[in-house]
Automatic annotation (TrEMBL):
Keyword field: Cell outer membrane, Lipoprotein, Membrane, Palmitate, Signal
Gene: bamB
Described purpose of this protein according to its UniProt entry: Part of the outer membrane protein assembly complex, which is involved in assembly and insertion of beta-barrel proteins into the outer membrane.
Gene Ontology annotations of biological process type: Gram-negative-bacterium-type cell outer membrane assembly; protein insertion into membrane
Highest taxon of the lineage: Bacteria
InterPro entries assigned: BamB (IPR017687), PQQ_b-propeller_rpt (IPR018391), PQQ_rpt_dom (IPR002372), Quinoprotein_ADH-like_sf (IPR011047), WD40/YVTN_repeat-like_dom_sf (IPR015943)
SUPFAM superfamilies, alphabetized: Quinoprotein alcohol dehydrogenase-like
Signal peptide location: 1-24
Protein name stated in the entry: Outer membrane protein assembly factor BamB
Quaternary assembly: Part of the Bam complex.
Gene Ontology CC entries for this record: cell outer membrane
Domain Pyrrolo-quinoline quinone repeat: 80-311
Protein species of origin: Microbulbifer donghaiensis
């Protein structure tokens, strides 16, 4: 887990904690090793439809460059400034644009444009049809999550606690909203989401906020997690996974906090359960799914939040956010495996290794295809097939 310190003294404290951890006994070290995978009898297969190499993703600085889809195009970017558009179904490359930036935030797609951003806060919009540069805008801080595109605006979330709404056509700033940051946070920010004319954003202080997409006026604010303990490390409650909207509900989860179901209209809480993750949740088949910080996978009932099942077969394997795909649940791990779970029982029913590098970037589901991107830039489109 990567942390971002807000003061030099706090950085020293974190460094000391890491040094102490490194001195652990061999027995303690064994307890931190990823569990070994056991053989399974698969009932489903993830079959590769197409793949492409797009270049490295900067894992050291935690770039989370999730691809985006619009108008039949799958758009992906690497950390070196290259943006690609592929035919979603065949993988045929439509265009490639080379930007003179180190991309850290992306890929935002919608309204006929593609938006990416870099560590210095420069946002760049490209034409979805041909990849030509349309406009750029400089914000105040790093952008390490995908911009949201919709309702006539592009919304960026920066690591210094700001949400900025830009006109999608011109790139001019329409509004800005600032929040106070905790002393210590995780390295990363949640990608904002535009839904029903509102911008939904998870914050580093453990709150979920809804703003009017047109002018940035706050609609509601709800606390997902309450900091606990006296040490700053214990009080880290970031929401680093994008909120998930399903119908009238929005679901979110925090690190060292809770997973919650809220009313999309006013933020009223439906239910909350203790949880710890730096990922988004997935929703499907009447459940909310979460891969927690330890590597356990949980299913919660959508209506009341009761735990339906949990799976500890992948402990300490640094799981990705779960993806609900083809009536199954899929998670990636540190060794490039995709694990397919039965959403009813939580049993692992399939496994496919798509790379030797980690799959930590959120996967993308579009119809009958699942798209996964590894840290070394292997982009894979997969289809689910059931064994007879």
């Amino acid at each position: 887990m990567k942390f971002l310190s807000r003061a030099a003294s706090r950085a020293a404290a974190v460094a000391l904690a890491v040094a102490l951890a490194a001195c652990a006994s061999n027995e303690e070290k064994e307890d931190t090793d990823p569990v070994e995978l056991v053989d399974i009898t698969p009932s489903v297969e993830l079959q590769k439809v197409w793949s492409a190499g797009i270049g490295d993703i900067d894992a050291k600085l935690y770039a989370m460059l999730q691809p985006g889809i619009a108008s039949g195009k799958l758009v992906a970017a690497n950390s070196e400034g290259d943006v690609f558009a592929f035919d979603r179904s065949t993988g045929k490359r439509q265009w490639k644009t080379e930007l003179d930036i180190e991309i850290s935030g992306g890929v935002g797609v919608g309204l006929g444009i593609v938006v990416v951003a870099d560590y210095r806060g420069r946002a760049v919009a490209l034409d979805l049809n041909d990849g030509k540069e349309l406009w750029t805008y400089q914000v105040s801080g790093e952008v390490v999550s995908a911009p949201a595109v919709g309702a006539g605006v592009v919304v960026l979330q920066t690591v210094d606690g700001k949400l900025i709404g830009l006109d999608a056509t011109s790139g001019e700033e329409r509004w800005s909203h600032s929040t106070a940051l905790p002393v210590l946070t995780l390295r990363g920010t949640a990608a904002p989401v535009i839904s029903g004319g509102n911008v939904l954003a998870g914050l580093d202080n453990g709150k979920l906020i809804a703003l009017d997409a047109r002018d940035g006026v706050p609609r509601w604010e709800q606390r997902v997690a309450i900091p606990q303990g006296s040490a700053e490390l214990e009080r880290v409650v970031d929401i680093d996974g994008a909120p998930v909207v399903r119908g009238d509900l929005v679901f979110a989860a925090s690190y060292q906090g809770r997973v919650v179901a809220l009313s999309r209209e006013d933020g009223r809480g439906l239910w909350a359960r203790d949880a710890s993750t730096n990922h988004s949740v997935a929703v499907g088949a009447g459940n909310v799914y979460l891969s927690d910080a330890s590597g356990s996978v949980y299913a919660y009932n959508v209506g009341n939040g009761q735990i339906v099942w949990s799976n500890d077969d992948l402990l300490r394997r640094q799981l990705s956010a779960p993806a609900y795909f083809g009536d199954t649940l899929v998670v990636g791990d540190l060794d490039g495996y995709l694990h397919v779970l039965d959403p009813v029982s939580g049993t692992i029913i399939g496994r496919e290794r798509v790379d030797s590098d980690p799959i930590r970037i959120p996967m993308l589901v579009d119809g009958d295809l699942l798209f996964a991107l590894s840290d070394d830039g292997k982009l894979v489109a997969l289809r689910l097939e059931r064994r007879q």
